[in-house]
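Before the break, one more example. Copy the sequence into your notebook; we will annotate it together after we see the structure.
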Amino acid sequence: MSKNFLVLAAVTAVVIVGLTACSPAVQPEPPAPVETEAAPVEDTSDATSSGAEMLSVQESCELFNSTWADYGDVDPEDPDGYGYMDIGLALEPVLPTIPEETYGMFTVLRAAAYEASIDGVMSEETQGLMTTWVLDASGACTDAGVTLQL
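Here is what the structure looks like once it is written out:
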């Protein structure tokens, strides 16, 4: 199999999962904690399983703005430059630290980055989802003192 086929397959899977999971009517919820009989479960509501602390709404809104600016600065003609795939990959370890109020727009941005890594553009459907999720998060971001850029 060619590298392009594997990238296309991975991106397609991420986009499908991201688009079906990002319905604006349903907020993503963190997974329920698994109960064990061996020891009490430690409260990790303010930290991820990797030990990283959750970002504040303000921090996540600022991160979205800077990542969105990076997305806009990508030059698809520069093979050695920072590309859409790099943006998608950079978001992977950050997603578990994103608060619920802004999580949806990050999942769509990640899917958009993977999608654009194939042909350099974001689909109209993804653009619509991005707009919906940014509008959904804009109140929380504004309350935190950050104006979202789209």
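The chain is about 55% helix and 0% strand. Residues 3-21+55-143 form one domain. Try to locate both features in your own notes.
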